[in-house]
Amino acid sequence: MSALAVDDRARYRANPTVLQALKSPRMLTREVLAGLVVGLALIPEAIAFSVIAGVDPKVGLFSSFIMAVSIAFLGGRPAMVTAATGAVALVIAPVAPTYGMDYFIATVILAGIFQVLLGVLGVAKLMRFIPRSVMVGFVNALAIFVFSSQFPQLIDVPWLVYPLVALGIVVMIVMPRITRVVPAPLVSVVIVTGVVLAFAITVPTVGDQGELPKSLPELFIPNVPLTWETFTIIAPFALGVALVGLMESLLTAKLVDEITDTHSNKTRESWAQGVANMLSGIFGGMGGCAVIGQTMIGVKASGARTRISTFCAGIFLFLLVVVFGDFVGTIPMAALVAVMIMVAIGAFDWHSVKPSTLKRMPKSETFVMVATVVLVLLTHNLAVGVVGGVLVASVLFVRRVAHFVSVERSVERSVSGDVARYVVNGELFFASSNDLTTLFEYPDDPEHVVIDLSGSHIWDASTVAALDAIETKYAALGKSVEIVGMNESSQRMRGRLTGGFE
Description:
Layout: H1 3-11, H2 18-23, H3 25-53, H4 57-74, E1 82-83, H5 86-92, H6 95-99, H7 101-120, H8 132-148, H9 161-178, H10 184-198, H11 228-260, H12 266-282, E2 289-290, H13 292-301, H14 307-323, H15 325-329, H16 333-347, H17 355-360, H18 363-379, H19 382-402, E3 406-412, E4 419-428, H20 430-433, E5 448-458, H21 461-476, E6 480-484, H22 488-497
Parallel strand pairs: 4-5, 5-6
Antiparallel strand pairs: 1-2, 3-4
């Protein structure tokens, strides 16, 4: 076994391990209780995300149960919770109403396959190329989508829905100031539901949205034709789910790494998310990814550190729904709307739009963030917004870096003959080297020209072609060119490519 493999195993070794937790009653109790709290907190959001996706509540609940349990064994980030999420629900929402449930499940399974492929190909390593401004735009767009998705539950409903929503929001604002032991969303749901039951208020309930599960999930093999036409229908949605799910999962994993001061295997997490989504689809779930809110409840508020807490969260979620399903069906939709509004408010990066931040932040950063949000809102696709945001950021970066190249000319007088010396500083690539040929005074230079590249670097074939063009122009005038100061990498690049553009 190589030293690198040993180092990787040591780097990603869980601390504490599952075995250590099982041997410690105190640690095991902490992990189990953390799982219970997270399982309770998953119920209202799983149901709400099912509504966003346009499917029965049991679809989101099944998905959360299956994904939490499977990722506990497969995932690369211990204690991180995976379940049905708003990001995935928003991307996949058009499928079920337009094409039916079979196509919906096929999309979830295909998304899992895409994630496995992306994980094997090392897509986790590409996360470092996503700028912070794109991340902020992604989060803000997600928050706007989650908020706007509540409008159908607030239009043409009994007027008592509005004070109930307000009550739920007030409880979630006040509760954390009293205690954080029990999740505020759960307390809000219980109080609002209690008010509705106590006063026999008639408002839309979870039970009105569809049947809740009464038993274990069953195999669901989608009845869709295995044709290219089917693939073209579901592939765009599946790819969107795959990209958004991986992005949110890897961001959450990075956040947990920082909180616990440990490392996690992002590549393993990537393909594990894909397997979890495939299992979710096979058993009739809507798919999902890592959930930031519930993960923070487990890791930060409850002290979870091992896979035990994630496994218990899935088990407790299923038991609560199956055993107390009748009660869950009486939960008013107003309570879930309040939860989702607070999720949207909490997810939005308000700091990014503060006047003081906008004044201090470079205009290009703000433009990239706004462009990401606008692209998401126009296309209703979070993945398109992120890819578009990265492209905008790349163009602005290239444009900015291209202007950092400078050329300084001097003429050295000597008995043997005058020499024109050009000192080039900056990174030479396609954006900066295209104008390089225009920065030399060909007719006015003496017969010998020296181009000093000690302060620059050749990155691509465009630069080599530009240098060849400069030599050709001087040769046509009967003058010689000497290029000096190239580093080893630039010499190899030029040696391999020079003369090959005619």
